[in-house]
Design brief:
The structure is a single chain. The protein has 138 residues and is an alpha+beta fold. Among the domains are: 63 residues, no CATH class; 32 residues. It has 4 helices and 4 strands. A 4-stranded antiparallel β-sheet has the order 2-1-3-4. Strand 3 and strand 4 form a beta hairpin. The longest helix has 21 residues. It is rod-shaped and about 75 Å long. It starts with 22 loop residues before the first helix and ends in a 9-residue tail after the last helix.
Length: 138
């Protein structure tokens, strides 16, 4: 006669009455492909903080400028998700969050205009002073 604890060939193994907690939840990490909502009431996001969700890690930063540092150090990517109440929809990609929070450096357009004026000024000085005696103005 088999023991009562051993399941027979056609039966499913008994389920323990108490469930063991997920070890990744104890460390503060999210389990991969978790179906739990990150907007859960037991895990609120402090005001002004951003949560960056990657495939392997979750980051919570208090300063939006940290997005640039994390991107430069390649810990996050532009396609990763950013969650924060300060964003228009509450969630968007890192790239879009940087646009919304205006973290991008201004374009190179102002510097191009400055260099054009510098080169035009040097050209005018060269023609007016005429150090090579080219007689360009005669």
């Amino acid at each position: 006669m088999p023991d009562e604890e051993e399941p027979s060939a056609g039966e499913a193994p008994p389920v323990p009455s108490e469930s063991k907690p997920d070890p990744s939840a104890q460390r503060g990490e999210s389990a991969p492909f978790s179906s739990t909502s990150i907007f859960a009431p037991d895990n609120p996001l402090p005001d002004g903080h951003l949560r960056i969700v990657t495939l392997t890690e979750d980051f919570t930063v208090s300063d939006p400028a940290m997005l640039v540092k994390l991107l430069k150090s390649r810990r996050i990517h532009t396609f990763d998700d950013v969650i924060s109440p300060i964003l228009p929809d509450g969630r968007c990609s890192v790239d879009r969050a940087m646009e919304v929070l205006r973290l991008r450096r201004p374009g190179r357009f102002p510097w191009v205009v400055v260099w054009i004026f510098v080169l035009l000024g040097l050209g005018a000085v060269f023609v007016l002073v005429d150090p090579l005696d080219l007689n360009l103005l005669k």
